[in-house]
Amino acid sequence: MESALRNALNKYEKKDTLFEKLMENQENEAEPLIQECLSLLCEKNMNRGQDHTPESMLTLSKLFIKIADFRLACEMVWCSASMAVQEFITTRKLKVRLYSHNGKRDFVRALSREIGNQFAVFEACHASFYTNSHNARAVNAAFEEANDFVQQLRAYHLTDEKKKELENDNFNY
Length: 173
Prior knowledge:
Elements: H1 2-11, H2 15-23, H3 27-43, H4 54-66, H5 70-91, H6 101-111, H7 113-131, H8 136-155, H9 160-168
Helix pairs in contact: 1-3, 2-3, 4-5, 4-8, 5-7, 5-8, 6-7, 7-8
């Protein structure tokens, strides 16, 4: 169901208007748009194998924040950060494989202390998926932090020396 909703929202032509209405708490105006979006989902054969990006996960997080599902919003923030780390490895053609959350944590700490500390925010979000401990303020702060994290990773200048260091390190235990 979650995947279907995500795909429907990504393909929905009026998604910006829908988000606007939700953000402005105009539920009466948003409801017909939601119904239209869901109807289109039922009518069309959606691409269920969509490749997500850190941004698409943040879009989903924003939606879950608007409907006050902070547990799923937290998990989407975690997914966004996790995907950003994998995107970093892939786009820089690093010969690094990360198989665990601990490996991801140590990898981002190896990039910089600041980025590693930022990643701890997303690990707390992931834990909140199980504990449901984040409130609206905490999720919104994590959402903003995730936006910043994605941009920092994309802008990170990776030297050849740092690349070799990362590739020689073992982040899998």
